[in-house]
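Q: I'm writing up a methods section and want to include an example of the input and output format. Could you take the sequence below and give the corresponding predicted structure tokens, formatted cleanly so I can copy it straight into the document?
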Amino acid sequence: MNEVLETLKKIEDKYKLFQQQQFTFIKALERTREEAHDMIRPVSSIVQVQCYKDHHCFNATDRRVLNMFVSLCNELRCLCQKMERAHAGDSVTHGLLEKCKLLLNDSNDLTALRATYPHRVVNFLSVEESKHRYGGVVSLLPIVLDTMRAWVTHSKKYLIPNDKECERCKYEDPRLGKKAPWIPPGNTSC
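A: Here is the clean output for your methods example:
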């Protein structure tokens, strides 16, 4: 679980950096779509962004920011696999992981996807850009990160045992810190 938490924290830090470059990301998509003569279709999948980066991107800054997006998606996919190995979980965690896998599928259609409050990523786009071009692709990462945070929260709360808490009476002794409560020799319960 610690490995999952560390990886999620690293990805969140990278996402914060990516978030600061959202205008650059949108401009890179505009330029590469223009180069690809693909101005009518919305950017609807991770594969489409990858294709723009690989075949229609001739600017180093554009390539870097598009690569950052694709790289974040790949890291989130790997994190999904780590989460799956960390805990088999219950129906809630299984459903959250399935949602992440579906969203991060390379060919998944992202056009109808929209991040809502508290995420402002869509608010920075014009109405035209939000509805018809980039709303789904800029909403992908915040939605997946929220879903993964929900997985972690649920797993911590319901699936991972709390060593500081007495199983029988649910009393949590703040003095114990990370230590298990003392059990007299020969006694197997609290």
